[in-house]
Amino acid sequence: MEAYELITLNEWNIDTEHICCAFTNKNCAEGYQAKKNWLKGQFKDGYTFKKFNIRGKVFIEYVPAEKGWVPIDAPNYMLINCFWVSGKYKGQGLGTRLYEACLEDARDKDGLVVVTAKKKQPFMSEKKFFNKKGFQLCDTALPYFELWYYPFHADAVVPTFKTIAKQGICDVPQGLSVYYTNACPFTEYYANIELVEAAKKRGIPIQIHRLATKEQAQNHFVPHTIYSVFYNGQFVTQQMLTEKSIDKYITK
Fold first, then answer.
1. Nearest-CA neighbor of 149 among 167, 161, 137, 133?
2. pLDDT in tens, 78-112
3. φ, ψ of residue 216 in degrees (nearest 5)
């Protein structure tokens, strides 16, 4: 197996290093820079982005849970925020190497925690990997979100989703509502352009809400804060909807 170098992004190298997602997607150039700017603001809170020196989606992002942009209560845990090994790089042990780097950085914590789904979902970490690593299911939220944790000792607090994030109901009772952060380079384009145009074509009223602070994200209506779509107040998906996919989720 080729020995890839593991790189940690920081305030000094982020302008010259790619951030794996969307670096070849011209539609997402604005979101790509927005993600870099977002990361710059998170480094002071202990946010970590590690990747291998390859032109591919092979990376992990994690942060102390108290500073994470996720509505959970997990005191003194490390939250795995985004974890992706794609394409030809699967099956080479790279995911395990990334996970072990996170594990090492979390040794002063009480454990690790991650948001997954009951079944495989786009833009979410798969629970199968974490199950193999010894994680346990500790909480659920409608309609399919799961919280898995790996405590380092028996006295560790069991993490939970915040109550507000459990029912999948937002504060806009009519029409289409989309909430997103700049933690993903795809969100700017797919929320503000692709979905707006698709909704307009169908005559569906739409509101776009950018979660601009971690406090807003920590009190969001579902555990997935990067991008979430609600219709008539009910959560429908965290998948980034397109002209081709919107009718699968939204029925007038």
1. 137
2. 999 999 888 788 888 899 999 999 999 999 999 99
3. -65, -45
The amino acid sitting at 191 is A
Q: What is the pTM of this model?
A: 0.95
Cβ count near 181 (within 10 Å): 22
For domain 6-164, give its CATH number from 3.40.630.30, 3.40.50.460, 3.30.470.20, 3.40.50.970: 3.40.630.30
Q: Which long-range contacts (CB under 8 A, 24 or more apart) does 153-157 make?
A: 153/110, 155/110, 156/76, 156/77, 156/110, 156/111, 157/74, 157/75, 157/76, 157/110
* Per-residue pLDDT, 4: 85
β-strands 77-85, 111-117 pairing:
parallel
**pLDDT value for 2:** 57
Q: Which CATH number fits domain 165-249: 3.30.1780.10, 3.30.420.40, 3.40.30.120, 3.40.50.880?
A: 3.40.30.120
CB 144, CB 186: distance < 8 Å: no
